[in-house]
């Protein structure tokens, strides 16, 4: 992908690299820019960006803000017709846990576990599926 800071996808990918490098504050800037550059109707993309931003907020121990982003990401994904993402639900559980909201954390961990167990595999670009190993 060519360097194009005006591309929301480019900003998202750089933000993910910054999160991996634990540069959470810089990642937030790129997630914010990507959200602003993403057209309003692209709900799945907005959900993905909010989940990424939430992860950066977790890195900064801003549990309340991360929780709000995870909840909004799940809502937008549902509106877009996407299946619930067990990774996002598990991460939301981590926020609940960090806030001492044990029952909500437990519920999310159980839901995430069930969703992972129900997953049949991934459909590749060529149409074939691969078995889930997690």
UniProtKB/TrEMBL annotation:
<keyword id="KW-0677">Repeat</keyword>
<dbReference type="InterPro" id="IPR019734">
    <property type="entry name" value="TPR_rpt"/>
</dbReference>
<protein>
    <submittedName>
        <fullName>TPR_REGION domain-containing protein</fullName>
    </submittedName>
</protein>
<dbReference type="InterPro" id="IPR050498">
    <property type="entry name" value="Ycf3"/>
</dbReference>
<dbReference type="InterPro" id="IPR011990">
    <property type="entry name" value="TPR-like_helical_dom_sf"/>
</dbReference>
<dbReference type="Pfam" id="PF13432">
    <property type="entry name" value="TPR_16"/>
</dbReference>
<keyword id="KW-0802">TPR repeat</keyword>
């Amino acid at each position: 992908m060519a360097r194009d800071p005006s591309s929301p996808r480019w900003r998202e990918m750089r933000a993910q690299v910054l999160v991996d490098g634990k540069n959470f504050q810089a990642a937030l800037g790129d997630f914010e820019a990507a959200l602003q550059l993403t057209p309003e109707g692209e709900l799945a993309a907005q959900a993905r960006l909010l989940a990424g931003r939430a992860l950066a907020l977790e890195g900064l121990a801003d549990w309340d803000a991360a929780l709000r982003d995870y909840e909004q990401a799940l809502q937008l994904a549902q509106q877009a017709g996407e299946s619930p993402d067990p990774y996002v639900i598990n991460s939301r559980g981590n926020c609940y846990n960090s806030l001492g909201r044990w029952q909500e954390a437990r519920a999310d961990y159980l839901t995430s576990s069930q969703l992972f167990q129900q997953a049949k595999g991934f459909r590749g670009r060529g149409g074939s599926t691969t078995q889930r190993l997690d």
